[in-house]
Write a structure and sequence with these properties.
The chain is mainly β. It has no helices and 10 strands. Strand 6 and strand 7 form a beta hairpin.
Length: 121
């Protein structure tokens, strides 16, 4: 999987779940496919949207650093880290995001099995 995919990203709408890494063993550091988030309308425009993301492993690594990145422009250099996990048992996290695009990035992983990351919009 490339570090940045210039293809048109899939859009994930509220209630959708995307799987940027699906039982994969990418060589860190490695970014996932990016996903577009639909534009906001109405009174909640400035508040952003609640995003949940979850990491799990086929077998627990001894160390891991996985991040969620967001951007307003779909360009590799535009992505910035908005949340981080180092939990080797995996975990589910929720954050408020004010961006148009989102992706997962496996920064580092020592030992362990394949990683799965899901993002819920």
């Amino acid at each position: 999987m490339p570090n940045y995919n210039a293809d048109t990203p899939h859009t994930i709408y509220p209630g959708d779940v995307a799987t940027p890494f699906n039982a994969e063993s990418p060589a860190p550091p490695q970014s996932s496919q990016q996903f577009a988030l639909p534009s906001f309308t109405g009174s909640h425009v400035d508040q952003g949207r609640q995003i949940s993301w979850q990491t799990s492993f086929a077998s627990a690594p001894t160390a891991v650093n996985a991040v969620l990145q967001a951007a307003d422009q779909d360009a590799d250099a535009s992505y910035a880290t908005v949340d981080t996990t180092t939990q080797t048992a995996g975990e589910r996290r929720q954050i408020l995001v004010r961006a148009r695009f989102i992706r997962a990035r496996l920064v580092s992983q020592t030992a362990g099995g394949a990683i799965t990351v899901t993002i819920g919009a």
